[in-house]
Amino acid sequence: MNLFKKSIQAIYLIAITFGITSNTSFGQIATYTSDTTGALASVATNATAIGGLTRVNGATIPGTRCSSGFSSANLSSSTTYSTTGAATEVTVSANTGYTLNVTGFTADLRRSPTGPTNARYAYSVDGGTTWIDEGTDHAPNNAVCGTTTTYLWSTAFAVASTTTLKFRIYGFNASTTTTAGTIQILNLIINGTVTASTSCSIPTGLSATAITTTTATLNWAAVTGVTSYNIQYRQTGTTTWSTATSTTTSTNITGLTCNTSYEFQVQTVCSSGTSAFSGSTTFTTLTCPCSIPTGLSATAITTTTASLNWTAVTGATSYNIQYRQTGTTTWSTATSTTTSTNITGLTCNTSYEFQVQAVCTSTSAFSGSTTFTTLTCPCSIPTGLSA
Question: What is the pLDDT at residue 198?
Fold first, then answer.
């Protein structure tokens, strides 16, 4: 009898524990299952969902939709993902004094035969002004209703109660954008937990300044009581972070790639511990500069003409050429959209030098000089003959 009572008590404790922790310990901030209206199945304690799943950017209800799940139509026929495309959106925020600790997003997707062959995940923590996308296209299953494929995006960031998390699933590359081309979402989960905000607040006011082709200065607002800050940054769409630390409200990073988008996050370090990392802020390095042309040579040289040549520069739209008689100070100029140009009006048996500059969105420096000599002057035909 005592053994029976202990067994019942153990089962009761397990049930109570499950009931208390099911909103947070199992890592689900918000879930959606199969309600055709988009209503959420659950929202974690101390978090609030603003409605359920909604259609945005022109997405509409299909003419014929599945009996379960959230279906949308009028999706983009573009083969390229864009944050302006039609999408399904869900919005969640932490209650005052709490933080959303997001660890990723999961959804089960399918499409109709004429629906979007690609889908993309993205989220925003500034009300939809800036979107961080996964950088990976998914291919929803082309099958009957309910036959879905699960896609998981593992990404970690925190959302304080002063901001709102928006998550979107975009559908694009649809062969029919009207009510016939559809995408179905059968399940959707925002993975993570909701925790009480620590005394070490999450940094805000992130920005990037002094951006060059390979460097940038990362900035954020000061947080009271911190001893230092941890910074992590990476190329947008990649998975590996580079890290840095700072005791001030900025840090300089180097070794970046030109004309490339980056994201960064900041975490505060206090005597009581560390905050969660902030949401990501993005910036793009400056356009790659033109390289200086190389491989200069002169061919087809005559007494008064020559063909000037050089190696093509990636990204160049044209080239500036300057040439002069060696030892003089005044340049003659020419332009070319190819990797050569013909010059005339030269003096026979004379040394010349020339240089080339590449023109992209900006211009390179001029190359070093390469010299050539025109052919020897020919003998003139005798005149003034007499006997």
Answer: 59
Do 331 and 325 touch, CB atoms closer than 8 A? no
Return the closest-CA partner of residue 78 out of 178, 181, 171. 171
Among candidate residues 378, 375, 53, 343, the one with its CA nearest the CA of residue 187? 53
Q: Yes or no: say if 336 and 321 are a contact pair by the CB < 8 Å rule.
A: yes
Nearest Cα to Cα of residue 305 among 338, 366, 350: 350
- Type of residue at 172: F
DSSP single-letter state for residue 73: B
Model pLDDT, residue 199 = 64
Grouping H, G, I as helix, E, B as strand and the rest as coil, residue 21 is: helix
Which tokens in the block code for residue 286?
Answer: 């400056």
Going by C-alpha positions, the residue among 42, 70, 76, 43 that lies closest to residue 58 is: 76
Quick count: other Cβ atoms within 10 Å of Cβ 353?
Answer: 19
The burial class, CB within 10 Å (0-12 / 13-18 / 19+), for 149 is middle
Residue with tokens 């356009």: 287
Calculate the CA dihedral of residues 101, 59, 174, 69 and round it to 10 degrees. Answer: 60
Q: What is the DSSP letter of 271?
A: T
**How many residues are present in the chain?**
387
pTM summary value: 0.53
Residue 245, Cβ density class (10 Å: 0-12 exposed, 13-18 middle, ≥19 buried): exposed
- What is the rounded CA–CA span in Å between residue 84 and residue 177? 15
Grouping H, G, I as helix, E, B as strand and the rest as coil, residue 286 is coil
Single-letter code of the amino acid located at 171: G
Q: CA–CA separation, 350 vs 117, rounded Å? A: 66
Q: Is residue 320 within a helix (H) or strand (E), and if so which, with residue range?
A: strand 318-325
pLDDT score at 315: 80
Q: Please give the pLDDT value at position 331.
A: 95
Could you list the mean pLDDT of each consecutive 10-residue stretch along the chain, which spans 387 residues?
Answer: 39 33 59 95 94 94 91 93 94 88 95 94 91 93 93 90 90 86 95 81 93 95 88 94 95 94 93 83 90 95 96 90 96 96 96 95 89 91 89
